[in-house]
Amino acid sequence: MRKPIRETRSVCPVCLRNLPARLMQAEDGSVMMEKSCPEHGFFQVPVWQGKLDWESWLLEVPPLAEGIALCCPGNCGICSEHESGTCCALLEVTERCNLHCRFCFARGGEGIEEPPLDELKAAIRDIVRQCGQPLLQLSGGEPTLRDDLDELVRYAKEAGCSYVQLNTNGIRLAMDPDYARRLKEARLDIVFLQFDGTREDIYESLRGMPLLEIKKEAIRVCGELRIGVTLVPTVVRGVNDDNLGELIAFAGAMVPAVRGIHFQPVSYFGRYPGTPGASDRYTLDQLMADISGQTGIPLESFMPSRCDHPLCGFHADFLIGPSGALRPLTSITHSSHSRGCARDNREYVARHWRCPPEEPAPAGDFSEEMDFDTFLYRLRHNSLALSAMAFQDAMNLNLERLHTCTLHVYDHGKIKPFCARYLTPIVQET
Fold first, then answer.
1. pLDDT at 366 (0 to 100)
2. Residue 290 maps to which CATH number?
């Protein structure tokens, strides 16, 4: 038996029509979204598995106000109803790709468009004009297929972007260290590295070929150049959800070259195999529960986003001990929501994902009784950040969440929330 706990709005997964939606909670704490389209019928999808208390995680965020989001996502661009500024602005620099992954929000490799350099520079200027000084993520396709990417990185810094992050599969970085060196000299801050796990069968399933050793080489190259690397796994039930603990142990062993892991539970937009059912859904609380079960990390270590909506993601910070054990630095002890601004979130990302400065280690061991200088050094050089972003698709799109999004995509002059930009019908008409 389920009871209604929250009213919101969503879309029909067939025609993308804006619809009222309701969140329904069962006795076990799990939550389903329900909605009906007058043309295509009734739909329901799991959005929470009851692994953590729903109300506590929501941090008393108010529901979507009546009369709001009636036209979303429609012809979306950030409008007066949107509640958050831009933390990260994503710019697609190519449609080309050297992989053809089963799961790809941008359908990489299905197009050949390569915007000219001058057009992309104009886009960067427009992003700065509209968004202030965002963290700019260069994406695609596979951005490293551009030979002039270093010029774009350099120009973005000169134009006023606070930080520049590269979204990449890492193949060219591993195979062409000189190319990576050019990016470093252009002041690239962060490599956002597609990294789905520590077994080759995972890559063969998700990416179509064994890539683990290439990924490791990309990390080595970036580490030598002191470019911070964040590992980005797409987590798919039955493929790599059993590998989370091993992935975290691997990342901890690769610190300080690896700065964190940014988990992305699979969402069904762009390119994906088949039509997903309820059993394919991998919710944010299930991800946290699986990480906790495989590592022993207390669930209390995970904190909901205070910049985006709490249901959009989590973060947790750890010191790494000499034996590799993770010591939590975060704890969900608060009871109410106080939203941080996009700038604060951007600086948090930069502190945790950029490579730390070169500096001598303080004398003494890294004991529990370390002095403050040693603690600060460890925080910079021996720490690991875990975070997640639970993207939305046409089945589970919650416009309450969309209205607080700070991850935006530049699309022909418009700044769009990520999940609005890549929204595609998920159920095909028959």
1. 59
2. 3.20.20.70
